[in-house]
Amino acid sequence: MLLVAVLWSPEFSVGVSAIDEQHQELFKRIDSLLEACNRGQGRQMVGEVIAFLEDYVKTHFATEEKQMIKYAYSEYLTHRTEHKQFIENFSQLKKKFEETGPGIQLVVLT
Q1: How far, in Å, CA of 12 to CA of 21, rounded?
Q2: Which sign, positive or negative, has the C-alpha torsion 80, 31, 1, 95?
Q3: What Rg value do the Cα atoms of the chain yield, rounded?
Q4: In the prediction, which pLDDT does 50 show?
Q5: What is the pLDDT of residue 107?
Q6: Cystine design at 45: which of 6, 36, 53, 67 (Cβ 3.0–4.6 Å)?
Q7: What is the pLDDT of residue 1?
Q8: What confidence score (pLDDT) does residue 13 get?
């Protein structure tokens, strides 16, 4: 099964360059993982992606939340709750990975 990446598009822009650049980096990392999966090397790369994401999402979410406060974003509290839920889901995924290694399931965190 060929996995196809979702490429960055200007329509994804939020209009804040720091956040857009971080989003683009996330797209690149996910694309690299999907390419590795297509070459049969996905299992080896999952650990690298998890390690990257563990630090990167914290930095990214902090940047986003500062910008939301700065611009008085009306959905700040809802978005902040989504960030917390993502981190909780990610922590569970990381724990499962550490306990059992990579599986064959594709997990999408939203």
Answers
A1: 11
A2: negative
A3: 15
A4: 85
A5: 47
A6: 36
A7: 59
A8: 94
Q: What angle do CA 20, 25, 26 make, to 5 degrees?
A: 95
CA distance 63 to 33: 24
* pLDDT for res 110: 38
d(CA 65, CA 37): 33
- φ and ψ of 76, to 5 deg: -55, -50
- Beta carbons within 10 angstroms of residue 10's beta carbon: 6
Domains of the chain (ranges, CATH numbers): 15-100 (1.20.120.50)
* Residue ranges of the chain whose pLDDT lies below 50: 106-110
Report the residue count for the chain. 110
